[in-house]
Amino acid sequence: MTSPRGAAIGLRGVGRRWSHADGPGAGVEAVDLEVRAGEFVCLLGPSGCGKSTLLNLIAGLDSPTEGAVSVDGQRVAGPGPDRTVMFQDSALFPWLSLRRNVAFPLELAGVGRAEIERRVDEVLRMVHLFRFADAPVHTLSGGMRQRGALARALVSDPGTLLMDEPFAALDAQTRDVLYGELERVWQATHKTVVFVTHNVREAVRLGDRIVVMATRPGRIRKIIDVDLPRPRADADRNANLLAAVVMGELREEIARVQREEADDAWTMGADPGAPARRLGLGGGL
Amino acid sequence: MLARRARDGLLWSAVAVSLRRLVVGYALSVGVGFSLGVALAASDSVRRGLGPVVTGLQALPSVCWLPLGLLWFGLSDAAILFVIVLGSALGVAISVDAACRNVPPLYVRAARTMGARGLVLYRRVVLPAAFPEILTGLRLAWAFAWRSLMGAELLFVAGGLGHLLETGRELGDLAQVVAVMVVIVALGIASERLLFDWAEARLRARWGRATRA
Q1: Where are the domains of chain B?
Q2: What is the 3-state secondary structure (H, E, C) of A135-183?
């Protein structure tokens, strides 16, 4: 990897409103956020808080209706290979082998064949998939596919790695292994990482900072620093304490969402028997 | 009867003439169909303008194009190719268009973040992703092209299997008529088996799809 450091990301007064013509999307409002070069930032919030919307704005897959997003001082005008994205699904192309998938961004950029070979080998080794380079994608497990997607995201040596719940569909054991892998790769490459999640433990495990988001409209509720030594273990006492603090912030937001999505006055943490009793009463009338 | 026509070479030359027309006509159809299909899928204004025309023309049996083809191109192979292209290119276009719009949006998003845009995006991502679905369209288009060719050759005397069939009728030679029909069916089945079964098997292996559902 050649770039000595990640990119700095700036969001200033960023808003994204959705009209009916745009289709469904979670709006965000007045978001100010500075991500330092090489920092690992987690965007945490319940569904509908616009965390994926923010990620798409940084990726350039979508543009803000207010404010501006900049990367290393340059205003983001569209997607670019300096900001690669990992999704919940690996999005590896099933018609290509793993090697050709990882080579894809370099082929698009017109990199020479020998150089492609060298860099693909390098990133495949980094994610421990070198031996599976020529395997068709469908023969790889879910965890292997996400590692493959990580390799593909890293191969063009971007300043920023954008991750949209990349481990959410994996089982807990595989996820735990991948936390370690991601942390190691991140420390080795000094990329800036923006990581979207709804999982508090994941955020505490990985982030330098956790941006807790609020819903409707999506906005930043609180930014929490994670001053814990790495690598962090799940059972660590301080991590547990911090997770509880973050969960407290989040709880209120989740309760709000549930109030809006439920058809009665059901709230999280309230007497769990209450709705059932109300239903029972309704049935008796 | 088959053996006699095979010995005197009439059958082989007819098969050669028909197959050459089929291959050239089909290749043209695929070219036209892919371009038109991608244009329909990629551009809303093309879809609004040409979409109804394409589906409308699809309702016209391909042999109905023959008189127009003869007027434009005269008594030549070009008229027959014209009929083949109009008989099968629209089907290719419709299937390419539909298949492209069914591609999972995630592939497109991922490709865009890696810097793919415009035609490159279509050539490298959308069309490969849509290909399993397009293959069905190509298969049907092959059958359409074969039928259009036979129809055109029957009506328009200039060599080929259809012509041999028509000659059999004129001579009142039932054996020749049936023999040529058998050859037409056999060629149709064989070409489809060879080309498309092979392509589909390869595709299934690559994508990891079960051979049987």
Answers
A1: 2-207
A2: CEHHHCCHHHHHHHHHHHHHHCCCCEEEEECCCCCCCHHHHHHHHHHHH
Q: Residue A223 burial (CB < 10 Å; 0-12/13-18/19+)?
A: exposed
Structural domain includes residue A1:
no
Domain tally, chain A: 1
Q: Are A18 and A24 in contact (CB under 8 A)?
A: yes
Spell B171-181 as b/e; 16+ CB within 10 A means b: eeeeebbebbe
- Nearest chain B residue to A164, by CA: B110
Q: Closest to A105 (Cβ–Cβ): which among B107, B109, B115?
A: B115
Task: Determine whether the interchain pair B131/A95 forms a contact, defined as Cβ–Cβ distance below 8 Å.
Answer: yes
Query: Number of C-alpha atoms within 13 angstroms, CB side, residue B123?
Result: 8
Fold annotation for B2-207: MetI-like fold (1.10.3720)
pLDDT, tens digit, for every residue of A250-270?
887 777 777 777 766 655 554
* A108 closest CA partner among B109, B111, B106, B129: B111
The whole-number pLDDT of residue A280 equals 42
- B34-79 pLDDT per residue, tens: 999 999 998 888 888 888 888 888 888 888 888 888 888 888 888 8
Which residues 97-156 of B are in CB contact (within 8 Å) with A?
106-107, 109-116, 120, 124-125, 128-129, 131
pTM of the model: 0.81
The 10s digit of each residue's pLDDT in A194-205 is: 999 988 888 888
